[in-house]
Write a structure and sequence with these properties.
about 325 residues; mainly beta; Jelly Rolls; Endonuclease I-creI; 2 domains; globular
Length: about 325
């Protein structure tokens, strides 16, 4: 099986000029070893998020959020849709979160001064599950609080149309730093292709995360991701889509959040109308009346120029013809 080793997964931009690290066929499984968002800096609680001590933070934007790629997909052309199937994610034996002065929405808090005057790094131990791996293991937040590891890929995408964008704050219909919790094993991600070979990148895996990634970091970790691609030739979609076994999700990023929500909902209606035969009237009314219609707010943290990321989701059972 082809693999990108971790030491090669240290790029900080999605750049259509990069030489491919792998060339794969549709349906071919391969693996990517990823770094965490700090490129290995955070290992213990004593490793603080002080910019002057972090490698790469003398650059603008900083060299953070490393990714692996590009992966060349044989047969992919501009105007196709790349279908990314995440088969499995095995995370490292720990993850971390880091808060402190000028980090996140409470980095200048006067109500809780410890959040804005002290740098704090928390290390979360991971224990394996029944499989003997962390694929079904547990995150230990503390001695008393724990939850299942629910890993996902935080940054993914294909090379954008004309620009080079950073893995830290680049976002668009081609992907980027979106922190979508549903970019997870068992789900399919649909991405419009803009260059020959697609030129796919991946990194920034999380062991778990709540809605919005409020502090700006979640349970950041290293990982090994196994995945494969398929292609839909000559198909146009307005933006990113995710298909779960039982539901459909359309993704949009924008500020303010209400525009991201509205656009994601309209794009979901388009999917329902064009591919499931629903009338525009029924689609419009369904998203207002169905108790299982959901708006997922995946990312709403105040970092650099990141947009807010919303997903509109509907169960497939309501779309049966």
């Amino acid at each position: 099986m082809q693999r990108i080793e971790r030491e090669s997964a240290r790029k900080y931009a999605l750049d259509w000029r990069d030489e491919p690290l792998l060339k794969v066929e549709c349906g071919e499984s391969f693996e990517v070893e990823t770094y965490d968002a700090s490129t290995g800096f955070f290992k213990t609680p004593e490793d603080k998020a002080i910019p002057g001590k972090r490698p790469g933070f003398d650059r603008t934007p900083p060299l953070a959020n490393p990714i692996a790629g590009p992966v060349w997909v044989n047969g992919a052309e501009r105007g196709d849709v790349l279908v990314v199937s995440i088969e499995s994610i095995e995370v490292d034996d720990y993850s971390w979160i880091a808060v402190g002065p000028r980090r996140g929405p409470l980095g200048e808090s006067t109500r809780w001064p410890e959040l804005s005057t002290e740098y704090t790094t928390k290390i979360f131990r991971h224990s394996p599950g029944k499989s003997g791996t962390t694929r079904d293991g547990t995150v230990h937040f503390s001695d008393k609080i724990s939850w299942p590891i629910t890993p996902f890929v935080g940054t993914f995408g294909v090379a954008s149309d004309r620009e080079v964008v950073t893995s830290l704050d680049g976002q668009g219909v081609w992907g980027g730093n979106l922190d979508i919790r549903d970019a997870a094993p068992g789900n399919k991600i649909y991405i419009p292709v803009m260059h020959q070979g697609a030129r796919f990148y991946l990194g920034d895996v999380h062991a778990s995360q709540g809605d919005t990634e409020f502090t700006g970091t979640a349970a950041e970790t290293k990982s090994t991701v196994r995945l494969h691609f398929d292609l839909i030739k000559g198909k146009k979609i307005p933006g990113l889509r995710i298909e779960k076994p039982d539901s459909l999700i359309c993704i949009h990023n924008y500020r303010p959040l209400e525009i991201a929500v509205e656009t994601a909902t309209i794009q979901l209606m388009d999917w329902m109308i064009t591919e499931y035969g629903m009338s525009p009237t029924d689609a419009y009314c369904l998203v207002s009346t169905c108790p299982d219609f959901r708006i997922n707010v995946y990312q709403m943290c105040k970092i650099a120029c990141l947009d807010f990321v919303a997903g509109a989701e509907i169960p497939k059972k309501y779309l049966a013809r």
